[in-house]
Design a protein that fits this description.
This protein is α+β, with helices and mostly antiparallel strands. It is built from 7 helices and 17 strands. It binds 2,5-anhydro-1,6-di-O-phosphono-D-mannitol and magnesium ion (MG).
């Protein structure tokens, strides 16, 4: 729902704190993350003028080439959270967790994909930052095992999209709110509250170039969508693929749809391309909080017990009826 209020992100969080929905320290983690995103937004907007485009000439732990902006965004988030309410950070772009010096007593763990949609950086297509906040489960020095909590345990999750507008989507468990950055005042203003993903949709998002590698249930589902009104589905489908998960999920949150990055047989042992902790969990919680669903084909993404920090997962999320259908196709195959 679009609103016309001028509630700032800070005011929204203060009201949530006053109602007992979030603690003061969680409020601080979210505000700090949002302000790092504002900084990243300014850098993104400068593009070639700011010298932020192009390759960094390095690889991350998963063997992917890093862009300059992947590292710049990572540094911005790291710097913002020094000496704050976060005990340790984990990032798609860092091999191991990063405990914050002197912050062992802090209550929160923060995970992020600093710059999602890296292949779109140099071509001026929407990109974003995805974040997830988990509670600490032990005291003293943070160990990596503490991060391995199912997505259901998230205390806050969201993304910031750097597109025609910079917008921040946020959930702390009470629905999904969307804030738009007002460039004049430099503040995020609440523009969409209590987002709802419609149960029905006629739009799917998937990288079709991988179709020959998919498993049978995915081929069956997409074949039926492509047959449209001429096939068993009795309705036509449209397709979108931006190749920035942030931008594709943003569209699904605003008007429905199903987004999929399934398992494929090129690397059979790899469950999928997307990362459970940095991408799938926060996006799945946002989608569930907006009335949609998210699965890996076998179980709800949020129920998966992570085994490793950089674990990958197949993702199908969005409008409930389509996600249920694709889940059924997977179970029928079994
Ligand atoms: P990234 O975090 O390195 O940018 O990779 C994740 C991105 C997602 O945003 C997007 O959905 C997907 O990779 C696109 O993959 P492909 O280029 O295979 O279509
Ligand atoms: Mg990503």
């Amino acid at each position: 729902m679009t609103t016309t209020t001028t509630t700032t992100l800070e005011q929204h969080l203060a009201a949530q704190h006053a109602s007992g929905a979030i603690s003061a320290t969680l409020q601080s983690v979210i505000e700090t993350t949002a302000s790092a995103c504002q900084r990243i937004s300014r850098l993104v907007a400068q593009g070639a003028l700011g010298g932020v485009l192009g390759s960094a000439g390095s690889e991350n732990v998963q063997g992917e080439a890093q862009k300059k902006l992947d590292l710049i965004a990572n540094d911005a988030l790291m710097a913002a959270h020094q000496g704050g309410a976060v005990a340790a950070l984990a990032s798609e772009e860092m091999d191991t967790i990063c405990p914050i010096p002197g912050a062992e007593a802090a209550q929160w763990l923060l995970l992020f994909d600093p710059l999602d949609g890296s292949s779109n950086i140099d071509v001026n297509v929407s990109i974003g930052t995805i974040f997830s906040v988990l509670p600490r489960t032990a005291s003293g020095a943070v160990r990596e095992a503490e991060f391995l909590q199912p997505g259901r345990r998230q205390a806050a999750a969201g993304y910031c999209i750097y597109g025609p507008q910079t917008m921040l989507a946020l959930t702390t468990g009470g629905g999904v709110q969307l804030f738009t950055l007002d460039p004049a005042s430099g503040t995020f203003l609440l523009t969409h509250s209590s987002l709802r993903v419609p149960d029905e949709t006629q739009e799917f998002a998937i990288n079709m170039s991988n179709s020959r590698h998919w498993a049978a249930p995915m081929r069956r589902y997409i074949t039926e969508c492509l047959l449209g009104a001429d096939g068993g589905r009795g309705k036509n489908f449209n397709m979108r693929w931006i190749a920035s998960m942030v931008a594709d999920v943003h569209r699904v949150l605003l008007r429905g749809g199903i987004f999929m990055y399934p398992w494929d047989k090129r690397e059979p042992k790899r469950p999928g391309k997307l990362r459970l902790m940095y991408e799938a969990n926060p996006m799945s919680w946002l989608i569930e909080q907006a009335g949609g669903a998210a699965t890996n084909g076998k179980q709800a993404i949020l129920d998966i017990q992570p085994a490793a920090l950089h674990e990958r997962v197949a993702v199908m999320l969005g409008s409930k009826n389509e996600v249920q259908r694709v889940t059924r196709y997977h179970s029928e195959e079994n």
